[in-house]
Structure formats: structure tokens, C-alpha cells
Immunoglobulin domain-containing protein (Otus sunia), 198 residues
Amino acid sequence: MGLLLLLAGVLLPGCWAVRGPGTMWGYVGGSLSVNCTYWAGQEMKPKFWCYPGTFSTCSAYIVITSSLQPAVRQNRFSIRDNRTRREFTVTMEGLAKGDEGTYICGVRTGAFKADERHFVKVIVAQGTRAAQRPAGARCICPLFTFAAPPSTPRPTAAGTDTPRGSPGSFRYFPVLAGLQVLALLAMSGAVLWASLRG
């Protein structure tokens, strides 16, 4: 059983290690802040806010901290890491409808290890008043559920943001999730077969 849990940890890296809201609401022209928490021992690791890419990784980092810079600002986006509370806050200012979509808040874990991450869906409403309603701290792990990406790419104003990654890669998600399940079943079968032989 312990080996199966280890295999699940390898196949589902990053789930539950970083927590945050499932959905955040803002309004056009306003701002919103997203708070994500992380485990002890990760205080000095880089924290980031990015656009999702293939295999639930980042296609482009929007803002990212470092061990020497716990607070970073990039155009309309800023990130601040409170290492005492093990919580980092991402702020998006000057919201536009083009900012709607799925983002990742996460912790960089190393060159040869998957980042720990949490998916957040941002919804931007028209008007001057809109509730910023977090859906509660919950992990959105790729194997179980996934925040839907925007149906079409939304261009941003020139010179204001990092280019958004193409959401087309999300159409491969069901295949990738199925491959993860098959890999887990195959490994489980191999472990069971080896234990029966022994």
C-alpha cells in the first residue's frame, strides 16, 4: 500500500501541497487578489503565477519570486510571499475581459521535479461592482477535476502583459488523464504480481 501511495504521488505531483481559491471574481477596470498557501519547508522556494500549458505545467510565467525577492511586480501583476504565514498573494490590476481564464499559483520545487501547483479560474464581470468570491480553499488536481479554460484566445494590449499561452493544449487533457490512470493500474499490477511470486 505504501508503494501505491508513492506511485500516486509521482503521477499526481503538486496536488494538495498548494491551496487556494477555485474561482475568483473581479470587475472590468478593477483589481483582485488571490491568496495561495503552501507547506512548511517551502518558504525560500520561488512562488509563481502563470498561464497553464501542456501536462498542467506553465506555458509562461507572469510573475515569480526568488529567495532574495519575496515581492515582485510585472506590469499589472504583482506577487508577495509572506514566509511567516506561508502564504503568497497575487494581485491583478486594471482587469479586462481578456484576463478571464485559468491560471496557476504554485511553488517551484526544482529542475527535475514537478512544480507544486493549484488552478484558479478568474472571471471578470462588466460594470463597476462585482463580488470577488473565492470558492474556498480546495485542491483542483488534474486527475479529478479541472477549471475550464477560455474557449478562444483573448489578446491583451500590446506591451502590457506576458503573451498568453494557447489554450488549445487543454483538448488533450482527457487523454493525458487516462494515461495517468493506465500507468497507475499497470504499476499496481506489477507490484501485485511481484508480491505473489515472492
